Structures are given as structure tokens and as C-alpha cells.
Amino acid sequence: MVFSSMTYLFVFLPMVLLAYFIAPPQARNMVLLAFSLIFYAWGEPVYIFLMLMSITVNYVFGRIIANNRAHHSRYAKLNLGIAVGWNLVALGIFKYYPFVSSQLRGIGLGFVPSLKLLLPIGISFYTFQAISYLVDIYRNQIRVQRGFLKFALYISMFPQLIAGPIVRYEDVEKQLSKRKVTLAMFGNGGEFFLRGLIKKVLLANQLGALYVQIESLGVAHTSVMTAWLGAFAYTFQIYFDFSGYSDMAIGLGKMFGFRFPKNFDYPYTATSITSFWRRWHISLSSWFREYVYIPLGGKRVSPAKHVRNILIVWMLTGFWHGAGWNFMLWGLYYGILLLLEKYVIHDRISSHPWPGRILTFLLVTLGWMFFVHTDFSAMLTYVGHMFGVGCSFANATTGYFIRTGLFVLLLGLFFSTPIFHRLNEQFAVQYYTASIALRIVMFMLCVAALVYQSYNPFLYFRF
Amino acid sequence: MSGQWDIEKRRQLYIVAFQVVAAAALLVFVWFIAHEKKYKEVDVPQLVAELSEITQDEWHEEDQLSLKRRFGLAANDFAAVGYFGPNSNMDAAELLLVRVNEKSQTDAVVEAMKNRVAYQCTCFDGYGEDQMALLKDARYVTRGYYVFLIISSDASSVEREFLKQIEP
């Protein structure tokens, strides 16, 4: 089920809110869990069994590790290895096996069976949550969860189940047992949810339509400027799409008394690539830093090993996003950029905010073109057009797209900076009633757009 | 002492048993998913091209932009799409076959198809008798992960051939 759908907004959400607040406090986890399972089963019921299996396996292994870590640490470590292995095998089979087998068959290893498996939605997110839980127990950073229902809720909580943020157990440990929803918190949650809905429906979908139009242009109609307009459209689309989902997830969490960590912090205002990745999909970057980069030695090793660590982490980050060479290339691209920043450029660019900001934005935009094109030849053609290979600088089509798309691109630029947020806060303080009315109008605009639009899933559902 | 040792031994046996059950459950689940009855995975654009030759309807292969403009659907959101649209504004025959990534997409695709047919009806209502007849006979066929819209002078033959091609 998609948050930005009529079924969700007018059937599922009212029902879960009603059931949640009618239920006595001790039954609220049960209500949330039941609705989370319904939410997950909506699209592909059969994969609910995989998630229930994951919950059970991680719950039991969590207890085994906790019971043994003090006196039988090697045994606890062995079980941690088995549990993490189980999670990675499940993720690997469903997410990567079809890709790996097709590659192997492609190089003549025809005996490798090709299983036709669909990607269970959200598997990358809940698997990473489960692994962080197990490792944190082993490291004695958290206490094991003995209540099965509470643990099941941690893994399957519907607001962040499908596209994050990846919530670490320590962030919600106390809230799973006891939480309070004040009217202010509920209202703030609603505000976050609406902000996310606006980002998705009124911005991301419009920018996505512009990108699709430009991407599907024939070679005869494209130009350098048109290709860059398309790339900017996708750059803003993916930001509003994904940060919109995160805002909705954080908002829903607040409405039920949970505080999920921030996942975006105006990434397109970053003055360097390092800073960009501290602001983009923060929960994923933190996960890789905590569970891969630091265990590999981080930067407290020789330069050669540091280079290795960065490349490993960024290849994995790329591969996490999908089973495809383009994602590996995208990850590697960032690995190389980060190495250049750390060893060659240092802070020469980030110390000049505006040039740094513009260069970072352009590099990120180029990176998204590796990310979005799963077909290598289409990727090379598109990136080639961005640099003038086989096309003119501008043509009549460019004029058409500037006239029809420039406004939405400028909106994208404006809303991706903190300026709007500050203005909005000032407006809400000075004109309270008008700001409420404005929110109602925006919600109705979103609903009207949803009625008109057909199918617009979140981009990150694919990962 | 020996009793305690037995308890510890038994506890470890339970853990080993759980490890085996966890691994086996995952393998059984994968086997079940991989061997579930599925419709054949066909080359969607090629199948639509073949189906378009069954009748003498006036249509031609369309690009992603037309799909987005007419149905509001982005081809990238689906596993595969094949679309033949009318040759001119005065034709109504269309074939759109979508293989969805997950079954929750099916309703949205059927809805988009119904909206398209409804829009076409408003265009031809009152003067395009033949076109209206085609549109009223529009078929929405859903099988497994396939969603198929058929607006054709011989929708039955197209549907029959489609089902034959995807039968497991």
C-alpha cells in the first residue's frame, strides 16, 4: 500500500488511528502490529511469511546471543554469525540471486538455475534493522527484547517498514514499552505527514513526469540543455519522493508516539560530497558507518586500507540500492569522489560555500543519471547528451521544456533549501488561522492531484 | 553437576535444532515461491506486436511518452509494457499489456485503463458509432502479473491468443 493513495488516506489511516486510540494502552502495540501486517500483506500477501520468519529467527537469535554473550562469548559470536548469515542469505536470494544467476548464465554457465523471484517489498530495510539489533545485543549496547510482540512491532512497524528510515532498536526501545501521544505531538506528526504528501504528490510526481518526457525523447530532439533539464528534474524528483516518504513515516511515527530519526537534512545545500552523504538517507549512511566502515578499521588505518574501506563501503552502498551494475557504478562513483575529497582536494572546495555547493549539486545530478539508467547503453547515451556527444547545445525542444518545466524546477530548487521551512514557520506564528487554512487547501490540492494521477509509487520501494 | 551438564547440553541441542529449522524454513519458502504456479514470462512488447497482427485494426506501436500522456503510467514502474495505440484521432483500437512488479499495482493499472476508455468514450460519443462499439467491448484481462487492455474489432480472438501464450 502506498501512503499517497486514496485507499491509504481515506480507509487505512482513519481505521488504524481510530482503532489505536480506542484501544486501551496495553493493547495498542497489538493494534499497530495487526495493521502493520495488513499493510504489508496488501501488495504481496505471500511475503508476509518471509517477514514473520525473519521476526521469529531474529527474536530467538537475539535471546540466544544475549544469554551467552557474558560467559560464552565465542558461542554468542557464532550465533551472531549464523543469524546475520541467515538475514544476508534471505536478502541475497530474493534481491540478488536473479541478477547473479542471469550474469552467470550470460557467461556460459547455463547450469546455474534461474529462479524467478520477486523482490519482497521493504526487505532491505527490515533486514538491516534486524542485523543492527543483533549486533547491538552482541556488543552489549542494548538490552534484548523479551516480548515477542514488541520485537515484531519493531521490525514490522508500518510507517517505516517499506522505505525507511532504518530505525535502530535503541532509538525506539523505550517507546515500544511506554509512549505518550500529546495533542501537540499528534499535530506535529500530521504536519510532517502533510509535508511529505505535498513533496510526493505536488512536487515529485510533476518533476517525474517532466523527466519521463525528456528521457523518452529521441536523439533527434534532444540537446545538452534538455538533457541537463531532465537530469535536474530527476534529481529533484528523487529527493522529494524519498524525503517525502521519510517525512510521512516520521509524521506517522509521531502520531503513534514514536520518534524516528531524521533521514534528510537539505542534502542539495551540501558544500561537499562528504557533507551530502551526511544529509542524504542519513539512516543508511549511519548504518554502513556503524556496522561496516568502523569494524573494517574506519580511517584509523594505513592510507591504503582506508582507501579499501571507503571503496568497500560505497560499493556495498551502491549494491544495497539494487542488483545491477549501474548501482555498483553509482556507489563506486561516490567512493572515488569521496577519496578525491579526502586525499586530493581536502577542504579547498567546502571552504568556499557557493562554488562547493554548485559543484556538489552538479556531481550529484550526474550521479543520479548512473543510478536511474539500469541499461548501460541508455546511460551512456544520456550522459553523452549531457556533455554534447551527438547533439546540439539547444534546440526548439529545449525552448518547449524551458517554458513548461522551468517553473516546477525552480519550485524544486526553492523547496529543497531551508528557506521555505523558515518562512513557513514565521508565517505559522504570525498568521495562525491562515496557516491552518493553507494546510487544508494544500491537502485538498494533494487529493485532487491524486484523483487525477494514476499510479505513482515511491522510487525507493524498489530497493 | 551432571544434571546441570545435561541441561546445558539439552539447551545447546535445542539451539542447534532451531538453527536447522530456521535454515530449512527459508529454503522451503524459497522453493515454494520458485515453484508456485506462474503464468509464463513472455517478451511483452513482442507478444503485443504479434497480437496486433491478429486483426486488421488501425494501430501502431507507441512509445513511453504516449503511455504516460494517455494512461498516466510510467513504463519504468512496471516489469514490462507493450503498447499499440490508434493510428489517428479517428481510430479507437488499442492494446496495452503490462506485467506488474507486484500484484498491488494491478488495481491502479486497471483503473488507468478504465479512465482511458472513459475518456475515449467522451471523444467519440454522439458521432463515432463504430469506435463506441469497440470501446464498449473493451476487455480488461488480468492473469497473474499480467494486466491487458484490449480494444479491438476482434477482442475475443486477441484475448484467446494472449491466454494461450501465457499459459504455464
What does this structure look like?
- The complex is a heterodimer of chains A (463) and B (168).
- Chain A is mainly α.
- Helices cover 72% and strands 0% of the residues of chain A.
- Chain A has 19 helices and no strands.
- In chain A, helix 3 packs antiparallel against helix 4 (73-106), helix 12 (282-293) crosses helix 13 and helix 18 (418-430) crosses helix 19 (432-452).
- The longest helix of chain A is centred in the first third of the chain and has 34 residues, at 73-106.
- The model of chain A has no long low-confidence stretch (mean pLDDT 89).
- Chain B is built from six helices and five strands.
- Chain B has two domains: 1-36; 44-166, no CATH class.
- The radius of gyration of chain B is 25 Å and the shape is elongated.
- The longest helix of chain B has 34 residues, at 2-35.
- Chain B is of the alpha+beta class and 168 residues long.
- Chain A binds chain B through residues 1, 5, 42-44, 46, 49-50, 53, 57, 60, 64, 79, 82, 86, 89-90, 93-94, 115-119, 121, 208-209, 212-213, 215-217, 452-457, 462, and chain B through 15, 18-19, 22-23, 25-26, 29-30, 33-34, 36, 38, 41, 63-65, 68, 71-74, 76-77, 101-105, 108-109, 111-112, 115.
